[in-house]
Records
---
Amino acid sequence: MSAIAPPSTLPRVLVVDDELGPRESLRMLLKPAYHIQTAENGRAALDALEWFRPDVVIMDIKMPEIDGLELLQRVKTADRTIEVIMITAYASLETVKHALTNGAFEYLIKPFARKDLEDVVRRALLRRHAELGARGEVVRLVEEMRQLSAKTRELEEAARREAVEQSLRVTQLSILREISRTIVGELDPRELATGVSAQLQAALGYDRVTVTSKTPARAEREDPRVVMCTIRDAQGPLGALVADNRASGRAIDPRERELLEMLSEYLAIALRNSRLYGEIADTKRWLETLIASAPYAIVSIRADDHIDGWNPAAERIFRLGSAEALGRPITDLLPAADYTDAKQRLITGQAMHEFEASLPSEQGRPTALAIALAALHGRQGELKGVIAIVRDITAQREVEQQLHQTEKHTALGQLAGGIAHDFNNLLQAILGYAQLMKQNPGDAEFLNRSLNVVEAAALDGSETVRRIQTFARLRPEEQFIAVDVNQIVQDAVAITRPRWEEKIAHDRRPLHLRLDVGTVESIHGRPAALTEAMTNLILNALDAMPDGGTLRLATRQEQGGPVTITVGDSGVGMSEAVRQRVFEPFFSTKGEAGSGLGLSMAYSIVRRHGGDIHVDSQPGRGATFTLTFPAAREQAKPGRPARPATAWRRARVLVVDDEPKVLATLAELLQSTGHTVIPAPSGAAALAAYAPDRFDAVLTNLGMAGMNGWEFAERLRAMDPNVAILFITGWGLREEDQDRLDTLKVRGCLFKPVRPGDLDAAIQDALV
C-alpha cells in the first residue's frame, strides 16, 4: 500500500506486532483517542512510514525477520522525530539499554495497565510536538539571523551597524534558548549529541556537527571552515563541540563562533548532568540489587508508620507478599509499644535502635526476630521515615538455648561430686543420730537434741536440692520480684562451695573466700536467673586460679545509687584483647574445657534485668567483674502470698505414691493436722478406690512406676472434672509443663521434702 493517509486531526499511532492478539488489543485501547494503523511485521511497518507518516510507533522487541531493535534503527534513520515505544514480555536489561540508546522513547513490560499505555503515548506525543516546534523555530530564527547578517555587510553607517549588531545578538540568544531547551532536558549523552548535531545542521547548514571527547588537530583548528569550542565546567574539560564545513568548502561566519561557545557552556552543564544521572542510575541499580538479594528483611516505613518498601527477604520472614504489605501499618507486624518507643528515640536524635520481637507462626513455634530501626531525616532534620532491618534469629535462639542447657548440665556435672560429698555428710548425721536415739530411748533431752540435728540436716539437704532444681530450671520460672541481692550471693556461694572444696582436696591448692556483704536495697529480678549468673561468675573465677588464690565477693550501695556486686579473683588475669571479647558467645580461652557460654549467659541475664556488667583485668593480676542494678525501692515480696483468713477445713484426702515410706509419711503428716486420709500405693489402686464426692482433694506423686502422676490425673479428670488435684514431686517441673498443669486444672505442685504446715496450707488453698 502506497497511498497517502487521509487527513486526520487525531495523532497517528502505528502498532507493530507479529501476534494478532496483542496487536488488536493495542488498537482497541488507543482507537478512541488516536488514528491507528497496524503492521504485522517490520517490512509492513517500514512501508507504512511513507504513506501513514506516524507520530508514534509502538513495536514489540521480539519479531521474526526484522526484530524490534533493527526496526527502531530504521525508523530513526527515516525520521528521528518519530517517537518509538518498545514493548516486551521478557527483555533483558541489556536489550532495554540498547533500545533506549538507539532512540527509543520508553519501554513497557507486558502485562501493563491501560493507564500506563495511555500515559507513555501522551508523553511521547508531547516530546515530538515540542521537538518539531523547537526545530521549526530554530530554522526560522537562523534564517532571520542570516538576513540580519547580510544587512550588516551592506550598511556602512556606524549607527545602523550598531543596531543591526544588537539585533544579531538578540537573534543568537533566541537560537541558543531554543536549542538549550532540548539540551537541558536530555540526560542520555548519545541522544544529547545527536539532537544538538541535528539541530545545528538543520538551522545553520553546517556539513557536519559533532560532540566529541577528542581535541581536533592544530591544522583543523586553524581552518576557517572548522570551528572547535571546548566543552568545560569547573571540574575540567568534558569534550568539544566541532562544526565542520570542509565537505562544502564554505567558511563559517566568525560571528557564529560566539553562538557556538555559548552553546558549549550549556552542553557542559548537560553533559555533567548526564554523567551524574548515569552514576545515580548505576548506584540505584546497585542498591536495588543489594536490597533484593539481602538475606535480611529491609522495610522502608513512611513518617505516618505505613510500609513503603518491601524486599524478598521480608516476604519470606513475614510470610507476606509485597502487594499485601505495601501501605499497611507497620504496627500490624511489629509490637506497637516497642516500635513507638524506638521511633521516639530516633526522633530525639538516636541514630539507631534495636529490639527483639516474636512473630506468631502457623506451625505453633513463634519466629524470633531481631529488629534494627534507623532514621531517615529530611533536609531540615525532620524525620521523613524509618528503615527497619529484620533478622530471623529463631534458629540462633534455639542453638543458644540448647547450648545454655549444655552449659548448665556441664556445671551440674562438675558440681555432682561436691553435692554427693555434702549429702553423704548430711546422711551421716541423720544415720548416726537415728542409731544413737535407738540406743537411748529413755533420754528425753538427748532425743530432743538429736531430733533437732536430724531435722536441720534434712532441711539443709532440701535447700541444696532446691538450689540445684532452680539452677537447672526444674522449678517454675519466677516473675520479677523484689530480690535480696545478699541472699543471691550467699545462694551462689552455697551451690559452688562443693566445687572449690573439691579443688582444694584434689589439687591441694589454697583457695580462700572473702565475703563482704553490705546493707543494700532489693532489686527487681528473677532469683533463679540471678543465682545462675552469679554461679557462672564464681565458677569462672575458680577456673582462673589454677594455682589457688582468693575469691572476693562484695555488695555495696551508695546513698540512693544503684546496687553493686563485685566478683574478683587473684588469678591469671587477661589481656586487653581477651577482655574486650570476654562476653562474646562461644569465645573461650579454655580450649575444649570451656564452651564460651558461661560469661555470655551472665552478661545476657544482667542486661535482661536492666543492669550492666564490666570487667577490669590485667595479665597476672586477676580480674574483677562489677555488676550494677537499679534499686527496686520496695521490700522483697514474700515467697508465698498471704492466704485470705478463712476457717480451717478438715478434708478427705486421697494420697497416691508408689514409695511405701513416702506414702506412709505423707499420710501421717496429713492425719496429724486433722485430715482424713486414704493412702493408695499406685495410680491403678487410687482409681479403683476413687468415687465422685468421696474425696475433697487428691495428692499424687508425679514420678511413679506403671501409671505416672500425669496419666493418673488425666484418667481422674475423666471421672471427676471438679475434684481438687495436687501434685508432689521430687524431680521438679519443666517450664513447658505449665500448660499441661493448666489443662488438668491442677491446683498446685509441692516439691519434696515438704513440711507439715506447707502441706496443710496447700490442702486448704485447694479447697477454696
---
Amino acid sequence: MSSLYNENDYRWIKELMLYPETLFRNLHDMEDTSRVTVPDDPIEKVIFQDRAKQAIRKIAQNKGHMLMVGKPGTGKSMLANMFRHLLDQSLGDYIRPKDSIAAYPGKDYNHVRFAYADPERLEAYIDGVREQIESARNSVEDFSLEGQIAPVKKAKKVLLWAAVISAAAGVLLPQAFILTGICGIGAIFMFIQENNGRVQEKIQREAQGGKSINLKHIADMVPEVLYDPRKETNLMVHVSEPSSTNMKGGFRHDPYQSGNLHTPVHKRTYLGAHAKAPIIYIDELKTLVRTRYMASLLEIMQNKEYILEGGRNTGSGAADRSENCLKADNIIIACCNHDTLQHLQEEGDGAFLSRIEDKGKIIQMEGAVPETAEHVRQVAQYVKQEICNLEKEFQAAWGEVMEKEGHEGVRRRSEQIFGRKLPGDYTLTVREFSRTAVAEIVKELRCRSADRKLSCMLRPINGIIKTAEFDAIVENAPLVEPRHIRKALKDHLSLEGAVSKDIIEHRKDLKKYITSMTDSIGYVVSLAVIHSGASGRMFGQPLPIHCQITAGGSDIITAPGKTGDIAKAAAQNVRASIKRVLRKVGAPYAGYEMHIEYIQVHGGVEGDSASVAMDVGLISDYIQQPVNQKYGITGSLTGEIILAVGGVTEKVRSIMDTDLTMEGACIPWQNKYDIEPLLVNMEYEYIQRDEVPAIRIFRTEGKEDPFDICFCKTKYNAYKILMGLSREEVEARMMERSSRDFAFVKQMARRKQDRQAPELNKG
C-alpha cells in the first residue's frame, strides 16, 4: 500500500523542531530585558493592537466617537486611557471646557435656569452679591424705643411734681390730696409704661443677634456654581454604570420642604458627565443596555444638548426641571464584548452603532496575532513594562522602610512576612527576565491560542509575570528564569483551571484503575479541553471513553449522558464511517447497536474532537483488539480523514505529566504547528512510527521520560499507533467479524422461523 506521507511531509515535521531556534533568533538582540526600552509614546505601550492604535490616532484627529469590541484583557481600557492622554497633549487646551456653569432660580420653585460664564467674572460677581448681602445683614441701626419712651418719661416727671405740689397744698387745703392721689397713680402708670418700653427694646436687640437681620430669601436668589473648569480639570470621566443621574445629573432631595427652610431648586442641582466632561468613557456598554439609558444617549448624541429633569417618581425633585438646555458635545468612548455588539445591532436597527460610525469608528480588538519577529519583540517590551510597574510598586510600598532601615530592614521584615529565613544578600529589587524566560512567556501566549498566533488577552499574564518576579526575588536569583514562569503558571489557575486540575488528579487514579481491571478492548483515552472565560486560557484533560458494538440489535448508536448536539452528530458520523468501511470491503452488514460511554464525565461533553477516539474504541471492540492506554488521541473524523480541532497544545500538555504515566499522543496532521510551543526550553528529537512522523519530547533532563507526539492524517494511522494493526489487517478482521455476525443473525432468524412454523400449522 502506498504511503499517505511524502518527503515534504517529513520535512515539514522536521522543520517544526526549528521553532525554538527561530524564537530565540527573534530575541537575538537581548540576553535579558535590561536592554529592552519602553517607548515614550503611551499608545505604543499597548502591544499587538496595531490596527486599533492607528484608528485611535485618526479618531483623535477628528474628535470622533469610538467603540472597542473585544475579549476581556485585550487592552480596551488601556487604549481608552491612552486616547485621553493623546487628546490631552494635542488638543486638550481647546476641547477642555472654559466656562463655568451656574444655576439660577427659575420661574417658580420647581424650575432652574443655567448659564455659561467666564469663571473669574462669575466668581467676582457672586462674591460681590454675597458681600452686599452680608453688608445689608450687618448694617442695620441699633433698635431703640427712646422716642416712644421720652414722652412717657416727661409725663411721669410732670405727674410726680404735680403729686408733690398737691401734697404740699393739702396741708392748707385738704381737697388737694385728691389731686395728689390721681397724680401719683398716673406717675406709677407712666413708670410701668417706661419699663415695658425698656423690656421691648432689650428683647429686640437680643433677637437681632448682634446687629444683623435675616436675609435668607435674598441669599436663596444667589446663583450656584455647578461646574468650575479651574477645579475640575479631568478631560475624561469614567462611567461604570450609565444612568440618568450620573450621565445627565439631577436634583437632590430636600427633607425641609415646609416653613421658610426649604432649599431652592438651583441649590439642589448637580451635573452629570454630559455637562462636565468632554470625553465620556463607558467601560462596559452592556450596563448601558441594562439601565435603559440608550434612548437618552442617542438623543443627546444627536442634539448635543438636553433638558435636565427630576429623576424621582415622588418626593422633592420629581417635578424639578430646567427651563433651558445644557450643552453636551461629548466624545463617547465605549467598550463591549461580542455578545453586546450583537444586541446593539438589533437595538433600534443599530442606531447607536450608526451614530458611532457617523463621527468615529467601531474598532475590532485583536484576539490573537501572528507570531512575527515584531510581535515577539513587543512581548519583550510588555514584560519590561510590567517590570517597571512592579519597581514603582516596590518603591511605593517599601520606599520609606528602605530609606530608614536599608536592605537589612527590608530583609528582616520580609522574613516575618514569608515566615522563613531569607538569604543574607537578599535585596528587594526587581529582576530582569532572561531571554529564555521571555521565550517562556511567548510560549504561554502561543499555548493560549492556535494557528501559530499569540493570544492578545494579556491581563492574566500580568499576574504570572509578577509572581515569577516575586519567586526570583525570594530565591535571590539574578534573573527570572523559565522555572519561575512555570511555577507561577501553576499558582495562577482560574476557576476553570482549578476544576481541571482536580479532574486530572481524579483521572490519574481512574485511568490506572481501568488499565489494571480491563483488557483495554474498547477503551481509549481521548483528550478534552475546558475554556476559561476570564483568562482566555484552555485547560486540557484526559477523557476516558468506553465503546461497545453488538450485532443483531437495533441499527443505532447511543451516547448517554449530557452530550451536546455536536457530540451526538459526531457519534452518528462515526457510525456512518464504520458502515462505509464494511461496504467498501464487501462485508455483509448484520445490523449493529453501538454504545459510547464517556466515563465519569458528569458535566457533559460537547464538540467533535473525540470522534476519532470513538471510532478507535468501536473498532477495538469490534475486532477485539486492545488499545494502548498510554497514548491519548484527539481529532475530528470525517470519513477516514482526521481533521484539525482546537486546544491541541493544552490537550497534549495536560497528559505530559509523568505521574499520569502517558507516553504519547496522536493529533491531527493539520494541528502540527500547535506542537511548536511545547518544544521551547525542552529537549526533543525526530522519530517515525512506521510511516507516521513524530516528535519525541524528553520531559526530564538527561533525555529521560520520552513523550511521542504522532501526526496522523487518517484513522488508519491512529489504528497503527494505538492498536499496532495496519489498514489491511483491520479491514480483514472487520470482514471476518462481519461474516460471523451475519451468519449468526441468519441462524437466529432460521431458528425463529422453525419455532413459528409448528404454531402456524397447528393454527
---
Amino acid sequence: MKLVSDPAIANKISKMNQRVRWQDPLIVERNIDQTRLVLEDGQTDNSEFSFLVIGDSGSGQHRGHNPQRQVAELMLPHHNESRFMLHMGDVIYLVGSSEYYHQNFIQPYREFILGGEHPRRIAYDQMIFKLPILPVPGNHDYYNLPILLSLASLTTLPIRGLLRSRLDLDVGLHGSGTGDAYARAFLDYLKAFQLPGELNDHLDQYYTAKTDTGRCLSYQPGHFTRLPNRYYTFRYGGIDFFALDSNTFNDPPPLPKTKKGDAARKVLEKRREDLEQEKLQIIETSAKLRPENPTEADQLDDFHAKVSQIEEIIVDIDKQLAADKTTLTDTEQLEWLKQRLIESWNTAEVRGRVIYFHHPPYVTEATKWQQAQTLIIRDRLRDVLDAVAKEIGSLTQGRPLVDLVLNGHAHCLEHLETMDTGHADSHIHWIICGGSGFSLRRQRIEGADLMETFGNENRLVARSHLFIGRNGQGFQKRRPYSGLRIDVKGEHHPKFIVRPLVAEWHQRQWHNRELEPLII
C-alpha cells in the first residue's frame, strides 16, 4: 500500500510552467526575467544583515507537543532583527495538501503573516508575509495521494488497517496536485488571470523592479509577497542567493541492462517488498496503542517517524526501478544556475554566494547518504560547479565557488565541510536545516566522515562538524528540533555567523538549548 505518489519530473516541470505562464508572449515582450525578484524593504544595500532558516517543518500536532510551533517561538525574538526567512522545503506533510496549510503552516507561523492574529481567516493562497518567507519546494510539497488511498475503500484490507491506526499521518482527502497547493501558496499564480487585460495590468503593477537581466518581480513585505517561479534568485547586501527546485533533477540513472544490473534490480525489489511488510506491521501495531498513555504516545510518535522514513526509502527505490533511457533531467534549470553563477562572479558588487535547495548532496543522517537521489543530486551539482570553475578561471582567487549551501530533507541540523573532492564543490560549507518540526532522525552509525569511491580509491570527501538529531533510547530519548539565525558580517569577503536555535523535547518537557555559533 503506497501512502504517497511522486509525479514524473516532466509532469512537475510542465505543471509549474503553466502556473506561472512560463515565457508567455506578454512576459517576453516586456523583457521580464521570471527567475529573479528584488526584495523591496529599503535595506538591501546593507552589507551586514541577518536571516532565519527552517526546513521540513510542516507537521501538525505530535502527541502532546507541537515542535513546529516551539521552533517558531524560538525565532520570534529574532524577527525584527532579520530581513527574511529561507525555508528548505517540505512545507506541508505528508502530501502537500492545501487542507493542511492552516494547521501545519499558517497557525505555527502566524506572527510572521499579515493578519496572523486571526489565523483562521487567512486563506492559504492569499498569504502576505510581514517577514519575507522565501521557500523552495520539497518532495512532500509535490507528492500526490494514490487513488486507492484517496478513495479510502473500506473493502481494501491495508486501507482498513490505516484507518484503524493512530498515526495521524496528515494525509487528508487529496494530495498536492503535483505542487499546485505550494504554487498557490507561494508563487505568483499567473494562470489565474483569464480576462483580457488582467495579466497586462498585473505585470505592470508588480513586475516593476529593474535589474541587469531585465524587469522582474518586486517582492514587497506586508503588501505583495509572491515568488516568480519554483527556482529563482535575489541579491541582498551584496550576496547572491540562488533558490533551486531539486525535485526536478533527482531522478537516478537507469540500472544497466547487464547481469549485474539485473541482480541489483532483484535486490531492490526484495528490499521494497520487505519495507512494505514492515510498514503494514507498524500500522497494525499502532492500532493497539493508546495516545492518552504517555509511553504509548511516544511509541506512536516513533511509529509515525518510521512509516514516513520507510515511505521515503520506497520512493527512492521506485525511482531506481522505474528509471530508463527516457529519464528526464531539468537541464534548463541547471544551465540557468551555471549561467547565473558565472554572471555573479563577473559582477563586481557581488561579494558572496549562497545556494539553497531541498535534497542535500552531503549528509550523515542515517537514511540519506546511500540513497540514489543523494548521489545524482551531488553529481549534477558538481557538473554545474565544474563548468562554472572552468569558465571563470582565476576570478575566484582561491575562494570556493559558493560560500554556503543550505539544504533540508534530512530531519536534523548538520554542518559539514567538503575536503578535496576532485571537483569544484571542494572546501564548501554545507548546512542541513531539516529538523524544524517533522519527526527527527538519527545520525548514521558510520559516523561523521563521508567516503566516496573514485575508481579503486576510497577517498574522504566530507566531514560533519555538528549533528543535532534524535538520540538516546526509551525514557532518555531526546528530540532536538531546530532552526537557524545566520548573521552576515564583513565588507568584502563575508563571514557567516550561524546560530543554532534548538528546542529539545525530553521527558515530555521542552528545554531550550544554547549552542556556540558557527563561524563560516
---
Amino acid sequence: MSGAKNCPETPRQKMIGMMYLVLTAMLALNVSANILDGFSLVDSSLHTTIESTESRNKFLYEDFNDAFDKNPSKVKEWLDKANQVKKNSDDLFNYIEGFKKNLVRMVDKDEANDSAYVRQMKVKDNLDKAAEYALQKGNGKILKKKINEYRIFLVGLSTNNPKKLKIYNSIFSTEKVKTKTIYVPWEVSVFEGMPISAVITVLTKYQSDIRASETETVQYLKSQTDALDFRVNKITAMVVPNSNFIIRGGKYSAQIVLSAIDSTKTPEFYIGGSKVANGKYERICNTVGLSKYDGFIKLMGNDGTELKYPFKSEFIVEPPSATVSNIDMNVVYRGINNNFEISVPGQSVENITLEVSGGTSQKVAGGKYIIRATQDGTINVAVFALIDGKKQQMGGGPFRVKDLPDPKAWFEYSDGGGVKRTIGNKTTKSILKSKSVSLIAGYGPNELIKANFRITEFTISRNGNNFVRVIGSQFNDAQLKIIDGLESKENIIIESIKAVGPDNKSRELPPMIIRI
C-alpha cells in the first residue's frame, strides 16, 4: 500500500487501465457466433418437431371424431374435453407466436421476418430488447400467467395419471429459478440479459412442449372412451327374471340381456319369433305349474353381419299360499295379545299385511304380529301381499276364540330386602300381618299364557268360623285381628276369591288354606 502511495499512477497508466476495463466488458458482452448459430439449429429443429406433432394431432382428432360418429353417446364426453384441449393449446401457442414476432420486430425493425425463426433474424445477439419487452412492458408476467393457467388445465385432466401430473408440473413450471446466489422470478431468468436468439429458442421450446402435451392429453382422453369396456372372447344371451316363483294371477317379468355387450348399443329381442320391446318380457300367469319359453337376441356385427344369440328360460307358477302360525298356542284368547308369525313364500315381510275379522292386528317386527280377539267363537285372519302394485290375498284361516283359563291365587309379600316372596301352605302370623302382603292371581312364571289379573274381593275365616269379607287384595286393620287370635297349627281359610282379567270378566277362584 505504501508503495502505491509513494509511486502514483501516471496519466498514461490510468488510460491503459481504463481501456482494459472497457475491453473486458466488451468481451463479456460479446456472444460467440458459433453459439448464436447453435440457437438457430436448435430453433429450426424445434420447428420441425412442432410441424410433425401438429400433423400427428390432426390425424388424432380425425380419428377421435370418427369414433364419435360411430358411437356419439359413448365418445361425446371425452371428445368435448379433447376439443377444449385443442382450443387452450392453440390459444397459448398463438400467444407465444405473437410474443416472438414482437421481439423480432423490436430488434430487426423494418427488416423483420414475420416467421419468427432464429435463422432468419438479422440481429441475433441483442441483450436488451427481450428484457425491455418482457420485463419493462410487463408482457413477461402475462405470459407467465397464461402458462400457469395452461398447466393447471392439463393437471386437472390428468388427476388419475401421476406420471403425467409430474411431467406437466415440470415442463410448465414458472417457479422462481435459483442463480448462483439468489432466487429470481421465472420471467427474469428467461428474459434478463439473454441474447434475443436464445429467448426466441426458449419460447419455441415452450411451443413444442404445448403441442407434445396436447398429443399426450388427447391420446389419454381417447383411451378413456374404452376404459370401462370389458375385453371378452364370448358373447352369450341371458335372461334375468324378477322372480322364478309366481303366484297364480301374478305377473312374470324378466329382463333379457346380451352379456358382455356394449351397453350403448341396442340389440333386438325376440320371444317365439315375436319382437320384445326393450328386452322386457312380461305375461299374466293363470296356469299353475312349470312354464318354459325361448327366443334369440339379434345384433349387427362391426362388419355389418347379422348375429343371433339364442336363449331359454323357465319359471314356476304356484297357487297363493301363506303360513300363519300362532307362536304361543293354537287358539286365540280374548283380552290378551296373541303372538302370530306370518310368512309368504317369495315375498318380503314389508309387502305383507293382515286383515282380522272379529279382532285387531298390530305389526311388531319382521313377520311378527299381535292379534287381539274382539268377539267370541272364531276370528278369521286373512294374509295379503303387494304384488306388482296390487294387493292380493295369499292365505289365512279361522282361529277359535276361547276365554282365558282361570288363574291361581296365592299370597305374596316383600322380605326385609324388598324381594317378593310367596306364602305357601304354612306360614307365621308375623308374615301374614305384614303390610306388604297381597293376594295375587295369575298363571305363574312358567305358563305359556301371559295375562294380568286383579283381585277384587275375598273372604277370610278362622277354622271356618268368623267369616270376614275383604275388598281388594290386602287386609285392613280389622281383618288382621282374626290373624292375631290364631294359635299354632290353626288354619286360616281364604275363599270366595274374585278376580278380573284383561277380558274384564270376573271369575271365582278355588279356596286356599294356610296353617299357622
